[in-house]
């Protein structure tokens, strides 16, 4: 018996892919391989650490998007944790010298993911899976 994927879960998976792309762009910006669009990014003067953190976060977002697409029950919990972790990384990056404008796309997408995950119908969709 196959279960249909609710539209909300599809939107959540797409948001996770968008977050992965943003994390990948941040990784390349910290490595100085991609131009700065919204402002400079730096991580306490040690950009390699920022690149590693964002690179790992990019890989985790890809993995979580796959879990969400397949309606894995653990995907909901992991995407909540990863969205919170993204907000922490953004906060640390702003403290570490990045501009708020440079981190704003990541903050907005992570906040949308977190808000959408906590929506009651989204939680129910994963409880039924």
List keywords for this structure.
129 residues, mainly alpha, 5 helices
Describe, in plain words, how this protein is organized in 3D.
It is a single chain. The protein has 129 residues and is mainly α. The chain has one domain (7-128). Helices cover 75% and strands 0% of the residues. It has helices spanning 7-30, 47-69, 73-95, 100-117, 120-128. The mean pLDDT is 88.
How many separate domains make up the residues? 1
- The strand count comes to 0
Radius of gyration: 15 Å
The DSSP helix count reads 5
Q: Quick one: overall form?
A: elongated
* Protein structure class: mainly alpha
Detail the poorly predicted runs. Answer: none
The end-to-end distance, rounded to whole angstroms, is 12 Å
Percent range of helical residues: over 70%
Summarize the structure.
The protein has 129 residues and is mainly α.
SSE inventory with pairings:
Layout: H1 7-30, H2 47-69, H3 73-95, H4 100-117, H5 120-128
Helix pairs in contact: 1-2, 1-4, 2-3, 3-4
């Amino acid at each position: 018996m196959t279960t249909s994927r609710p539209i909300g879960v599809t939107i959540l998976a797409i948001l996770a892919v968008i977050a992965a792309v943003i994390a990948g762009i941040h990784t390349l910006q910290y490595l100085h391989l991609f131009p700065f669009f919204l402002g400079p990014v730096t991580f306490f003067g040690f950009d390699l650490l920022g690149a590693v953190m964002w690179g790992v976060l990019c890989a985790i977002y890809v993995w979580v998007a796959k879990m969400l697409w397949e309606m894995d029950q653990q995907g909901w919990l992991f995407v909540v944790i990863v969205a919170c972790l993204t907000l922490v990384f953004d906060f640390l990056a702003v403290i570490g010298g990045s501009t708020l404008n440079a981190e704003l796309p990541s903050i907005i997408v992570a906040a949308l993911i977190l808000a959408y995950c906590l929506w009651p119908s989204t939680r129910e969709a994963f409880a039924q899976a």
